[in-house]
Amino acid sequence: MKIAIGIEYHGAHFQGWQSQPNGAGVQDALERAIALVAGEQVRLHAAGRTDSGVHALMQVAHFETSIVRPLNAWVRGSNAHLPPWVRVLWASEVADDFHARFSARARSYQYVLYNHPVAPASQHGRVGWYHRPLAVAAMQQAMQTLLGEHDFSAFRASECQASSPVRTLSQAALKAQGRYLIFHFQANAFLQHQIRNMVGALVYVGQGKLDVSAFAELLQQRDRRLAPPTFMPDGLYFTGVQYEAAWQLPPCSADWDAFNTD
């Protein structure tokens, strides 16, 4: 049978989603735990790969197994063998033709930026930080130029292995919530470091180092060397995946906004 699972994790404790030779990937921890429940080795396939230090409020993955277990056994049993910074949230049996990555229609991320002169102690490793006031309205205006289908080479990591730099961004929004700036992005897929690179450029807009037209020009120039530095991974969260309703999955999205940010 094929099982889909929803996953939450604190990325600071891992070297990204993907399996690592030293076993320090999120995938490694989950495969070890699920194998103890199944009594056999399993291979996980995720909706999207997150980099080292990047978190997930709702990652979706699937695995195949010849072992029959109650669905709550995949949740409770796996969590009993996982470190506290990663949890299986739900499990659902899915059709044989479901694939966590290839069945996904869109993926969503949020970047949470703490904008205050002093870095937060209680949120260390969980949010990005910038110490000077930022012009939110200018950043919001610049984000609108990202919507639609574009060649995002200006915001693509040099080591990105995607076959094409073209992506379709369906949502790009920013709101201030107390001392926090919360960026929300949704696209059919993302390039390596794309969001952190876009946030880095948007912070330049907020500082006044780039105006909106210069930000738009960066996108059109398609040259990563001309764009501002990549922003820290701490505040980036994978928040959900969009699938067709026909797959009958549990809720596949979560929202950092639901946390108390007073």
Commentary on this structure:
Belongs to the tRNA pseudouridine synthase TruA family. It comes from Methylophilus glucosoxydans. Formation of pseudouridine at positions 38, 39 and 40 in the anticodon stem and loop of transfer RNAs. GO terms for molecular function: tRNA pseudouridine(38-40) synthase activity. The model has no long low-confidence stretch (mean pLDDT 96). This protein has helices spanning 26-38, 71-80, 136-143, 194-207, 212-221, and strands spanning 2-9, 45-46, 55-64, 86-94, 106-115, 128-130, 148-151, 166-177, 180-187, 236-242. Strands 1, 2, 3, 4, 5, 6, 7, 8, 9 and 10 form a ten-stranded mixed beta sheet that branches. With 262 residues, it is of the alpha+beta class. 21% of the residues lie in helices and 28% in strands.
Average of pLDDT: 96
Total number of distinct structural domains: 2
In total, the number of strands is: 10
CATH architecture of the largest domain: 2-Layer Sandwich
User: For this structure, what is the CATH homologous superfamily of the largest domain?
Assistant: Pseudouridine synthase I, catalytic domain, C-terminal subdomain
Q: Helix tally?
A: 5
- Helix/strand/pairing category: alpha+beta
User: Roughly what percent helix?
Assistant: 10-25%
Radius of gyration: 19 Å
Q: Extract low-pLDDT stretches.
A: none
Q: Termini separation (Å)?
A: 45 Å
CATH class of the largest domain: Alpha Beta
Explain briefly what this protein structure is:
By secondary structure, the protein is α+β, with helices and mostly antiparallel strands. The chain has helices at residues 26-38, 71-80, 136-143, 194-207, 212-221, and strands spanning 2-9, 45-46, 55-64, 86-94, 106-115, 128-130, 148-151, 166-177, 180-187, 236-242.
